[in-house]
Design brief:
By secondary structure, the protein is mostly helical. It has one domain: Arc Repressor Mutant, subunit A, CATH 1.10.10. Strands 1-2 form a two-stranded antiparallel ribbon. The termini are far apart.
């Protein structure tokens, strides 16, 4: 059983997570909203840019969502000429995804905004705090990382 002080500290950690996430996504959300896009579009752009051989199936596994959840956003990205689809020869069941040059530019702008926020934060709190944050996030996300088959790159 948690004592009241520990419970308040854990509640504060939950609240910090909400506010930090809002701060991290706010600028990117505004950039996306100007194009009529949302956070789901952002996640798709982010992971299509980083998956080794992006297919719809790999994207679904990585995001942990259903086909229905990405169908509309993928159509939106295609309509705005931010993403392309193709089918590899010999396997019509697989739909490969790729960012267009415009999709790469948008994804690059979104990631640059968030990288700058992380860089400023990690500079402000120092290397030990950054390492502690990474350890906590990896601990939180370990089951999801495994489920998605995602390997984190080296930290630096």
């Amino acid at each position: 059983m948690l004592d009241a002080k520990r419970r308040r500290a854990l509640d504060a950690a939950i609240e910090l997570t909400f506010f930090a996430y809002r701060a991290l996504t706010g600028r990117a959300d505004a950039l996306l909203a100007a194009r009529g896009l949302s956070r789901m579009h952002h996640r798709i752009l982010h992971f299509v840019a980083r998956l080794e051989d992006p297919s719809v199936g790999a994207l679904l596994r990585t995001l942990g969502v259903t086909k229905q959840a990405v169908n509309g956003p993928l159509r939106d990205l295609y309509a705005q000429k931010l993403i392309t689809f193709d089918r590899p020869p010999g396997d019509a069941r697989v739909k490969r995804l790729a960012l267009t040059p415009e999709g790469k530019r948008l994804e690059g702008r979104l990631s640059a905004l968030q990288r700058a926020q992380f860089e400023a934060t990690f500079e402000a709190v120092g290397e030990p705090a950054e390492a502690a944050w990474r350890a906590a996030m990896e601990h939180f996300g370990r089951e999801e990382l495994q489920r998605a088959g995602w390997r984190l790159p080296d930290k630096r």
